[in-house]
Design a protein that fits this description.
The protein is built from four helices and nine strands, in the order E-E-H-E-H-H-E-E-H-E-E-E-E. It is of the alpha+beta class. The chain starts with a strand and ends with a strand. Pfam families: Ribosomal_L9_C, Ribosomal_L9_N. Binds to the 23S rRNA.
C-alpha cells in the first residue's frame, strides 16, 4: 500500500514522503491516526505542497544546524510563564512557549514540532529538552522556567 505521510513517523519518513507499507500497518495504524493519506495521483500534488512547506521552514544544512546547536547549548534559555504562589504554574509550559524562547536565543525561528519534551513542564526551575534541528543534529537545551 502506498501512503503519503502527513507528519513525521519515526523510522518511516517525514511529512510529504511517499512510502510503501504493509496493508495492515497502513489501514490499522497510519490512516486512523492521521499520520498519512492513501496515495493517488491527485494526492501527489498535495504531497509536493507538504514537502515544499517543510523545506521552507527546515534548517538549510547540517553546518547551519550545528551553528544553531552551539548557540542554544551555550547558555540556559529563560522561559517566562504565569505562575502563582509557591511556584505552581497556571497550566504547563507548551512547545510554542519554548520555541519562542529558543528563537530569541538563537536568532532563528525554531519549529515547535522539533522540540521533544520528556514530561510536561509544570514547575518553575531548570528543565532539559531536546531539539531536533536536522536529521543528524539534535541539541540538548537547558531551560530555566521563571515567573513573568
Amino acid at each position: 500500500m502506498k501512503i503519503i505521510l502527513t507528519q513525521e513517523v519515526e523510522g518511516l519518513g517525514g511529512a510529504g514522503d511517499v512510502v510503501e507499507v504493509k496493508d495492515g500497518y497502513g489501514r490499522n495504524y497510519l490512516l486512523p491516526r492521521g499520520f498519512g493519506i492513501r496515495w493517488t495521483r491527485g494526492a501527489q500534488a498535495q504531497a509536493d505542497a507538504i514537502k515544499q512547506a517543510r523545506s521552507a521552514r527546515a534548517v538549510r544544512d547540517e553546518a547551519h544546524a550545528s551553528e544553531i546547536k552551539a548557540k542554544l547549548e551555550g547558555n540556559p534559555v529563560a522561559v517566562k510563564v504565569k505562575a502563582g504562589q509557591g511556584g505552581r504554574l497556571f497550566g504547563a509550559v507548551t512547545t510554542a512557549d519554548i520555541a519562542a524562547a529558543l528563537g530569541e536565543a538563537a536568532g532563528e525561528s525554531i519549529d515547535k514540532r522539533t522540540i521533544v519534551l520528556g514530561n510536561p513542564i509544570k514547575t518553575l526551575g531548570s528543565h532539559n529538552v531536546s531539539v531536533k534541528l536536522h536529521d543528524d543534529v539534535s541539541a540538548a537545551v537547558a531551560l530555566n522556567v521563571i515567573p513573568a
